[in-house]
Write a structure and sequence with these properties.
Layout (H helix, E strand, L loop, with lengths): L1 H7 L7 E6 L5 E7 L2 H9 L7 H8 L3 E6 L3 H15 L15 E4 L8 E4 L8 E3 L5 H15 L19 H4 L13 H15 L3 H17 L3 H25 L5 E8 L3 E10 L2 E11 L6 H14 L7 E4 L6 H12 L5 E3 L4 H38 L8 E10 L2 E11 L2 E2 L5 E4 L8 H17 L11 E4 L4
Parallel strand pairs: 7-10, 10-11, 12-16
Antiparallel strand pairs: 1-2, 1-3, 4-5, 4-6, 7-8, 8-9, 12-13, 13-14, 13-15
Length: 473
Amino acid sequence: MDYLKDRAVSLPDKPGVYLMLDKTKQVIYVGKAKNLYNRVTSYFRSVENHDIKTRLMVSQVSDFDYIVTDTEFEALVLENSLIKRHKPKYNILLKDDKGYPYIRLSVNEEYPRFSIVSKPADDGAKYFGPYRGRVESRQAIEAVCAALKLPTCKRRFPRDIGKGRPCLNRHLGKCRAVCMGKVSREEYLESVNRAVMILEGKSQSIAEKLKERMNAYSAELKFEAAARVRDEIRAIENLGIRQKVLSGGMSDTDVIAVFTAESKSAFSILHYLKGELLETETRLIETPVYANRGELISGFVKQYYGNRSRLPKSIWLSDAIPDAELIERWLSEEKNPGRVKISVPARGEKLQTVRMAEENAKQKALTASTKTERINRSLEDLGKILNLEKTPVRIEAYDISHTAGADMVSSMIVFENGAPAKNEYRKFTIKTLEGSDDCAAMRETVARRIERYLINDEKFNALPDLILVDGGK
């Protein structure tokens, strides 16, 4: 602790981000500071004055690193990026759940196409979302493409232009059949740009421009052309409303509340559009050891809205957050072409709405915590049955497979807190054996796994409390 105090007092009086490291040099907490010296030194002096949660986090700190920034705003943006990269143990972490996909537009292709992906990538494509699920994402793509008569088939252009007959969508009037070569690339890109505007929530501005074109056709007595534009306007206006429901990202007001139970914390998000409740959403996390309600909501807001292409105009919170003005500025300048206002309602209907969100969060957290408590009791019982010194929080199981004694492979699966940790699963190709010997193969597997831990391999940096093996004397 003296070493950390001595290092902390040498920090500059400047804004920045600090990273707390454990004895394995793993990042366990990332925070931002208006003044690095004041913030970091506060952790290591008068430790006994900290609350229990803070003392627990500090007790795990073996070293720290820091990055100086020009402004506190830059520190906030950098902090959010580092939390996503390192996933520190003591920060609030929202899982990249595959249930919240994105729509991807391959803008770098000659004929851009829409697809569904689990998360954005730094590949130059344009992303929309996240959506509530793959069904909603697919519905959004199909609806937009049908309204603008864009292809949804698997053909690739210009490679497949003029090859084969048009599909059924052409005969149903849902596609202009780019594959027949009757749609120029410029016309195609114009329709794609309209689709982008719809997905970005700008359907009204498209409709207004099309109305001008419709009126111009009417003035020129081109009534068939005017009728086609009229039908397109109706489709886009109807689609705009549907898109708001599908995406859950077109609300003008979001209400966010948190409730912390012993093992689980829940965030309840209510999406409102013009005073009407559009939809509700709940996110569950493990209750952090180190965080108060304000810090929890601050971390949630930054991660929840960080990857979203559309934001509400207003965000009502159940608790005040320490960096509200900075987050407002970040969301307004970096993420949205317009002001995003964050507030904590204190009275009236707004407060009642926040209370409703709190009650939803409470019920979800308590239900999830009850399930977690049952799992914890089962793990405690398992530890007692096996005479373990501690509850087996992390369990690793190994098995050997081969084909008639050849091509031996062993698998490691992991359970943490009673649930499969699939990102921790590993495979080992047996290297030292010729022929079939399950016992020797198991010995090699477990030995190699422990060796990887001893050399600080980040993929094996956690030791199990219990190892289960299939195959042995």
